[in-house]
Write a structure and sequence with these properties.
Helix content: over 70%
Strand content: under 5%
Oligomer: single chain
Distance between the termini: 22 Å
Number of domains: 1
Order of helices and strands: HHHHHH
């Protein structure tokens, strides 16, 4: 079971990294076009909108990748001070809370997509529902990673602490 979890987690991470790289490269191009067009020509209005949407996607997908790599900020002093059995229980409880929050965020994100789906962006006329698709997508990814960590904890596998500790 742990081997299957590892394969799925690595597969998701292998997709997220190049997607984020592409989004960052696109952001650099959009911002460079924006600055260059303002300096030398007439400002391109769509570049500001594209940049804003790219930042939204990079933020949410980057948070998912950070969870995958156990790089989210964490204060582990309390957990580290506990005996191993209690520390494991606290980590299990934290995973359950995160899963609950992320499942709720998936639902809220889907509702928000539906509400905003009728609205169009000013310059590109994109459906805002498409822009906000990243909310339930990234919440589902983080819920999966938390579930994966929870299953590892339950079967006695090693799970690195958030914040990069133990790596």
């Amino acid at each position: 079971m742990l081997r299957a979890l590892d394969l799925i987690d690595k597969g998701i991470g292998a997709v997220l990294r190049p997607v984020l790289f592409f989004l960052m490269a696109a952001l650099i191009v959009a911002i460079s076009l924006q600055v260059g067009s303002r300096l030398f020509f007439r400002a391109l209005g769509w570049t500001e909108e594209v940049s804003r949407f790219l930042v939204i996607w990079i933020t949410f997908l980057g948070a998912s990748l950070a969870w995958h790599q156990h790089r989210h900020i964490a204060v582990g002093a309390l957990v580290d001070a506990l005996p191993i059995g209690y520390a494991r229980l606290v980590r299990i409880a934290a995973c359950v809370v995160v899963i609950g929050f992320m499942v709720a965020l998936v639902k809220v994100g889907l509702d928000y997509m539906g509400t905003q789906g009728r609205q169009r962006s000013a310059a590109l006329r994109l459906s805002m529902g498409r822009v906000y698709t990243v909310i339930p997508l990234s919440a589902a990814l983080m819920a999966w990673f938390a579930l994966s960590d929870l299953l590892r904890l339950l079967v006695g596998g090693k799970v690195p602490m958030q914040g990069g500790a133990g790596q």
